Amino acid sequence: MSAPPPSQPPPQAPDPASTTSVVESAVEAAEASLDIPVTHGHGIAYALVAVFLLAVVFGVWGVWTVLAPQSTDQGAVVAAQQARLDEMEQRAATLARSDQISREANRDLQGTLAERDEEIAGLRADVAFYERLVGSTAKRHGLNVHQLQLQPQGGPAWHFTATLTQNLNRGAVNSGRLTLSLEGSRDGKLQKLSWEQLRQQPGAAGLEYSFKYFQQVEGDVLLPSGLQPVRIIARLAPARGNPVEQSFTWAEAASKAETGAP
């Protein structure tokens, strides 16, 4: 790869002093020619030549003055370019920050919209549930366990939520107690655990309930180690009337709970 040619200094503007000296020399020459005796017969010719040379010198000087590149302050040019570069970098940083803020705001908005969609879905589920329960066209049914949900709490503990409903006797208060029992297998043998065993409290009383149309009753149960649960039974013992029992598979009850009321 060949070395770049050495940089040449920029052309300099003509020096007014030197140009003036050239013009003065031409004028002096013209004056000297005018001093030649007319007797020689060449005085007028010399004078004309001197005037022509003077005109040529002035013309060359004028053309050089117009066409010669003007000397510039390189430091000022560099400073102006640096200032322009700094301004563009500042604008780029501002635009990048604005874009970042817009993206963050858009993510927040998307998250808020997702939450609102979830809430709307829950509200729609609630409305559908209430319509089925107390609507004018709702099917009449007595006391029952509409849904049973189970959620692990770590270790052998499980939290349950039982949704109790009735719309047969509208306006009448239903009260009583809820208990659970469990069927499962351990070491290849079928086992059934009572409410007292699930609560690990001898003589444990059921959970109280009292409602007109529906109520959610919550509590905790403990499963023995090594037990594979298969089915869970909910038993309602109302203050008046016969007990009601409903069974749910463990897989159904332990599945992910739906949003809002069932």
Automatic annotation (TrEMBL):
Transmembrane portions of the chain: 44-67
Organism: Cognatiluteimonas sedimenti
Key word Transmembrane present: yes
Protein name: Transmembrane protein
Keywords: Membrane, Transmembrane, Transmembrane helix
